[in-house]
Description:
There is one protein chain. The protein has about 350 residues and is an alpha/beta fold. The protein is about 40% helix and about 15% strand. The chain has helices at about 1-30, 35, 55-65, 75-80, 90-100, 130-145, 175-180, 180-195, 210-225, 245-255, 295-315, 355-360, and strands at about 45, 65-70, 105-110, 155-160, 200-205, 230-235, 235-240, 260-270, 320-325. (3S,4R)-3-hydroxy-2-oxopiperidin-4-yl beta-D-xylopyranoside (XIL) binds near residues 70, 266, 280 and 333.
Amino acid sequence: MRTRTLKFLTSLALISILTSAAKNHQTKDDKGLKDYYRKYFPIGVAVRPSDLQSVESQLILKEFNSITPENAMKMGPIHPRENRYNWRDADSIVSFAVRNKLKVRGHTLCWHAQTPSWLFTDSAGNNVSKEVLLQRLKSHILAVAGRYKGKVYAWDVVNEVIADGNDFIRKSKWTEIAGEEFIAKAFEYAHEADPNAVLFYNDYNTEIASKREKIYRLLKGLKEKGVPVQGVGLQAHWSVSSPSREELEESITKFASLGLQIQFTELDISVYAGRQGGQLIQNQQRQQQESQFTSEMEQKQLEKYKMVFDVFRKHRKHITGVTFWNVSDKYSWLDGRGRKNFPLLFDQNLQRKKAYAEVVEF
Ligand code: XIL
């Protein structure tokens, strides 16, 4: 009798081991990042129009449920002359998203970089007045956010206006002509263009205490004045050596205390130590040196990915999105810095790296 029961129990255990193994296998094949994180937050990726017409598109549809145009909606590319908009690339990205039921994060309506040359000057080449600049900003935002109303669910309205050094607000053509007022105005115009879009302030190096404090001060001030800002985008251009868990958690808690939703908007983890930041480097076309993705880089990077996603899950109630900046290591915006980088979860053949497993096993 006893041996029979024992046999029966052993076979039951065997069956359950086999089915769970089968399930696991199936899980690995069928699920993408977006499915593992279904109950947490959308997982997005920055795209170029060409990504949507090549093998990358299959990977995008399998792994992600949100996209951000890497460049196509920036002021320079989309509004090259005062009376000319170039809608083609942004339209193609938005229609891909609509066809495939992906969310779109719009990026970005007001920034100091990638601005069109006509924006700050009149026909004689002199600076325009503050009134003219704000009028131009307004008509730009009404046109762009208006065109994609209801299709772009969230906008990075203002990008990177906090200074890295001692200044509070970054000095730029914007501040030279319009002081600091353009920041609040940009949010007001965006809200007018699409009252349902979630409006973000977006920046990098948000885990460095001094910059975090300044961003906090800016956002607190905007909220107190009733400016329609609902979220903060933490770019997350990180590296194998930073940020630490403590720095990251401190940023999340601090910004969440303002009642803002948090999104990680441009995630990549450079394999080179040091702060990556997110600064645009001049002379991006430098000759590229040979570089290898070593097993040491692989190990350090997977540990960092594991840690940051662990923190994201822990703080899920404040986090409403995580977006990677580029699809795979085949192409990253960081490659233009004289050496190849390998900052993403998919390798140059679009295969999942070891770090992928660290992100989805929890
Ligand atoms: C980068 C793009 O990835 C590059 O293709 C482009 O040459 C420069 O801009 N912070 C931002 C993004 O907010 O818009 C930047 O994107 C990366 C840093």
